[in-house]
């Protein structure tokens, strides 16, 4: 990185001890070096210096009372990264690992992901180091209400529209939306992922997983001449993204043989029975290890990393950042895996991505392949603005079109810069150009 190395140095100096943020910025800047060479006006206008610095970072205290009457204190975050093409848009994550660096990495990725959808949405992200695991509904409600009593003043349907992420599902969105509505005395589309009877969109729950498969189906067909039909697929995670990626992959004719959670993974050589997983995860909220009680032919293994040693044609990491490292990538390649699509945000380490690239594996970066969730959130915003709702089939068809278009625009951008099948480069460049041109037009 000749032209942009000083930008990277500044990011590291200004944001010490934030390795995930550094990793995300470095990956994007490496792709954009050729854009900087070809378009010196972006360098002159300081676009690269501006795009790596959030427009606003908000950190706040979240006090709440647990079921024993004890006061607990968590920390809340909202990073409003870039609003050049639309209001900030990005999820809220509740997980003990959350800190400002993780929220910045996610918010930065979100700028390009949202740009790729073709919808008018800027990039932002939020969350808290609160752990919803093992908490009662009452504790989660009180936490969400306290969180919103601070967040409400920074968001709005035309300012910043949060959604769910890890640890934040329909229940949490409901509690937060209820509090926002009460404080602001208005019913607006300020949060997405809402319930169907109060402003939500059909197909939102399925969107990230379905979108991932629509993207991969188009990419495999175009680049590899293959499809999900008859393919063996390994998927990590067992949350919302993994469940609906499994569902759509199975509908498209694939055999999904593994799923995981933070404790370990389950391998079912006969193919994962999705109704069992939905019962365990969505209804009972238990661990994936329960699966073998229902299907004794399946095998449960403690620890997550071994999932990538299972022989497969297609791997879809859908759990969390940096879950698939260089050794895992080598194991996948050795077992004949020819396509990897990211359902989570940045699940593959830089070493893993290098292994895939060197071995001709079709690799789809999350900001392109998992954009289906935020795309459907954008469709939910449109429906809220119209006070109207589309059918499941209408939303699903729009989602499929968006995912196919993301693949095509990423591939076209990569081709323009001489690396046709490099979807990392293509997604970064295509996502960046739209935002950069808007920033140029709006001045400093």
Automatic annotation (TrEMBL):
Any one GO CC term of the record: cytosol
Residues holding NAD(+): 208, 240
CDD domains attached to this UniProt entry: NAD_bind_2_Glu_DH (cd05313)
Active-site residues, record numbering mapped to chain: 125 (proton donor)
InterPro entries found in the cross-reference section: Aminoacid_DH-like_N_sf (IPR046346), Glu/Leu/Phe/Val/Trp_DH (IPR006095), Glu/Leu/Phe/Val/Trp_DH_C (IPR006096), Glu/Leu/Phe/Val/Trp_DH_dimer (IPR006097), Glu/Leu/Phe/Val_DH_AS (IPR033524), Glu_DH (IPR014362), Glu_Leu_Phe_Val_DH (IPR050724), NAD(P)-bd_dom_sf (IPR036291)
Keywords: NAD, Nucleotide-binding, Oxidoreductase
Domain of life: Bacteria
Single Gene Ontology BP annotation: glutamate biosynthetic process
Pfam (any one): ELFV_dehydrog
Binding site for substrate: 89, 110, 113, 164, 377
Gene Ontology terms for molecular function: glutamate dehydrogenase (NADP+) activity; nucleotide binding
Residue span(s) of domain Glutamate/phenylalanine/leucine/valine/L-tryptophan dehydrogenase C-terminal: 201-443
Annotated PANTHER family: NADP-SPECIFIC GLUTAMATE DEHYDROGENASE 1-RELATED
NCBIfam families noted in UniProt: PRK09414.1
Assembly: Homohexamer.
Similarity section: Belongs to the Glu/Leu/Phe/Val dehydrogenases family.
Protein's name in the database: Glutamate dehydrogenase
Organism: Acetivibrio straminisolvens JCM 21531
């Amino acid at each position: 990185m000749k032209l942009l190395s000083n930008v990277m140095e500044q990011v590291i100096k200004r944001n010490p001890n934030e390795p995930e943020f550094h990793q995300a910025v470095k990956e994007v800047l490496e792709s954009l070096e050729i854009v900087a060479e070809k378009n010196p006006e972006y360098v002159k206008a300081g676009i690269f210096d501006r795009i790596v610095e959030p427009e606003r970072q908000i950190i706040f205290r979240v006090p709440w009372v647990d079921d024993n009457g004890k006061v607990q204190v968590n920390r809340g975050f909202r990073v409003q990264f870039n609003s050049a093409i639309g209001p900030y848009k990005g999820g809220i994550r509740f997980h003990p690992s959350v800190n400002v660096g993780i929220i910045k990495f996610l918010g930065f990725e979100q700028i390009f992901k949202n740009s790729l959808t073709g919808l008018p949405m800027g990039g932002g992200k939020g969350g808290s180091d609160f752990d919803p695991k093992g908490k009662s509904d009452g504790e989660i409600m009180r936490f969400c209400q306290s969180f919103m009593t601070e967040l409400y003043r920074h968001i709005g349907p035309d300012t910043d529209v949060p959604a769910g992420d890890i640890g934040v599902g329909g229940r949490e969105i409901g509690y937060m939306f209820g509090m926002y509505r009460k404080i602001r005395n208005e019913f607006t589309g300020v949060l997405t992922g809402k319930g169907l009877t109060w402003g939500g969109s059909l197909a939102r729950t399925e969107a990230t997983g379905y979108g991932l498969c629509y993207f991969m189906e188009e990419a495999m067909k175009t680049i590899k001449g293959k499809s999900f039909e008859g393919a063996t697929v390994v998927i990590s995670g067992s949350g919302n993204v993994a469940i609906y990626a499994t569902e759509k992959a199975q509908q498209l004719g694939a055999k999904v043989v593994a799923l995981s959670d933070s404790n370990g993974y389950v391998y079912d050589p006969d193919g994962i029975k999705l109704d069992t997983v939905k019962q365990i995860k969505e209804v009972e909220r238990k661990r994936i290890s329960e699966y073998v009680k229902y299907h004794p032919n399946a095998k449960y293994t403690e620890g997550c990393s071994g999932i990538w040693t299972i022989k497969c044609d297609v791997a879809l990491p859908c759990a969390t950042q940096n879950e698939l490292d260089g050794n895992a990538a080598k194991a996948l390649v050795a077992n004949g895996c020819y396509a990897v699509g990211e359902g989570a945000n940045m699940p593959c380490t830089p070493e893993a991505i290098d292994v895939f690239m060197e071995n001709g594996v079709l690799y789809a970066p999350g900001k392109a392949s998992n954009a289906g969730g935020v795309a459907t959130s954008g469709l939910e915003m449109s429906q809220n603005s119209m006070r109207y709702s589309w059918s499941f089939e209408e939303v699903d068809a729009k989602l499929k079109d968006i995912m196919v278009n993301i693949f095509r625009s990423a591939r076209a951008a990569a081709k323009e810069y001489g690396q046709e099948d490099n979807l990392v480069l293509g997604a970064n460049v295509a996502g960046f150009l739209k935002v950069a041109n808007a920033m140029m037009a709006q001045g400093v």
